[in-house]
Design a protein that fits this description.
Helix content: 25-40%
Shape: globular
Distance between the termini: 34 Å
Strand order of the largest sheet: 11-10-9-12-13-15-14
Number of strands: 19
Number of helices: 12
Radius of gyration: 22 Å
Bound molecules: nicotinamide-adenine-dinucleotide
Strand content: 15-25%
């Protein structure tokens, strides 16, 4: 089996779908790995390191020639994949919900497109979950960016010239990114509070030494919800949440919002009038900016100032940590493909009746085959 690793071409993409460690593991399995020249450059991995790990280096057409599988981070344009075998696998973050035309293009090209972000949230697939691995790094980076923008220090400092009080950080949405944001803000010495609609997060907030701030008058989502995901809340809940936020936010220096609802625009958690109650110099990092934003006035990829408060419309923050983000992404891909490695055929064999395969497989045999896409 020949595996091609592409150099990313999407604007702003810094990550690479392989690292020398995963190249070595693939070759140990019996695969041949071809890496496009310069693929690891932005992630601080030199071509020579890939070579040492057992890969060959070449141009895009060299690596695609006769490839059985193509690994990428951001889904490439279908026209740029000529030369691969007709039914080759294409695995990466293909963004099927927003790039339907590109997915149709993969089908037309005969490729078997596998969207890693649609990995089912089951225990067996945890090590293959790119959403978790990238959100974790993004949650860390959101706090570092907030600290960099904030004109005050995070930890309490008792100095001869007087005491500096600790920064107050409020994290809204306690999924993978939110949990890492809480942990990072705690490490920097901030006083941290956090909220979510899923009641299961209360314990997690407490276990990180932060203060849970929850709507008490209306029931939230009990248990893990649908696969750990939140749903849209009732008007009654939203009203109670807005009141809770209004009371809390004026006392905060930093707010990190991470709330997402799959398949829906991000829920609006902070209104302009609420921002106006914050102290000038406060910082809000809206990690949901790409999905429409949790904060009124957010612009994705930009910093804007409203009422003296800086709103950071965070884009894909994992891209700003390319070395670590690539390492985790590459391992997610390796864990996925190696789980379906057939030692006799020396190739990846994806069984039709497997829950993981059904989740990620978008196209096959010239058609779009994923139920979620068919429904859309
Ligand atoms: P996410 O990115 O979809 O959303 C981020 C957080 O925002 C969630 O915690 C969500 O409940 C919260 N949220 C949504 N609407 C909100 C609102 N109106 N107000 C406040 N908060 C709101 O979530 P995620 O980071 O992908 O993780 C969600 C859960 O799934 C976690 O419990 C995580 O541990 C679990 N998970 C399990 C697996 C697995 O088992 N393989 C993999 C990944 C995540």
């Amino acid at each position: 089996m020949k595996i091609a690793v592409l150099k990313e071409t999407a604007a702003g993409e810094t990550r690479c779908a392989a690292i020398p460690e995963t190249v070595k593991k693939f070759t140990t399995l019996g695969a041949e790995v071809a890496v496009e020249r310069g693929a690891g450059e932005a992630a601080s991995v030199a071509d020579t390191e890939f070579e040492t790990a057992g890969a060959t280096i070449g141009s895009r057409s060299d690596v695609l020639k006769g490839a059985d599988a193509i690994l990428c981070v951001t889904g490439p344009e279908p026209a740029s994949l000529k030369g691969a075998r007709k039914d080759a696998l294409l695995a990466g973050a293909l963004d099927p919900a927003r790039r339907r035309d590109v997915i149709d293009g993969y089908a037309k090209a005969g490729l078997e497109a596998l969207a890693m972000e649609w990995m089912p949230r089951i225990t067996r697939a945890q090590s293959m979950d790119i959403l978790s691995s990238q959100s974790n790094l993004a949650g860390y980076k959101a706090v570092v960016e907030a600290a960099d923008t904030f004109g005050r220090a995070f930890p309490m400092m008792m100095t001869a010239a007087g005491t500096i009080s600790p920064a107050k950080v409020f994290v809204m949405g306690v999924g993978v990114a939110g949990l890492q944001a809480i942990a990072t803000a705690k490490r920097l010495g901030a006083q941290v509070s956090a909220t979510d609609v899923r009641s299961a997060t209360r314990e997690q907030i407490l276990s990180l030494g932060a203060k849970p701030i929850f709507v008490e008058s209306v029931a939230g989502i009990e248990g893990e919800g649908t696969g750990g995901y939140a749903t849209e809340m009732s008007a009654e809940y939203q009203k109670a949440q807005a009141e809770l936020v209004s009371g809390h936010i004026a006392k905060q220096d930093i707010v990190i919002t991470t709330a997402l609802i799959p398949g829906k625009p991000a829920p609006r958690l902070i209104r302009d009038a609420q921002l106006a109650t914050m102290r000038p110099g406060s910082v809000v990092v809206d990690m949901a900016a790409d999905a429409g934003g949790n904060v009124e006035g957010t612009i994705a990829g930009k910093n804007v100032e409203k009422h003296g408060v800086t709103i950071i419309g965070a884009g894909n923050l994992a891209r700003s940590l390319p070395a670590d983000a690539s390492a985790l992404f590459a391992r997610n891909l390796y864990n996925f493909l190696s789980a379906f490695w057939d030692a006799d055929k020396k190739a990846v064999v994806l069984p039709d009746d497997d829950e993981i395969v059904q989740g990620v497989r978008l196209t096959r045999g010239g058609k779009v085959v994923n139920e979620r896409l068919a429904a859309a």
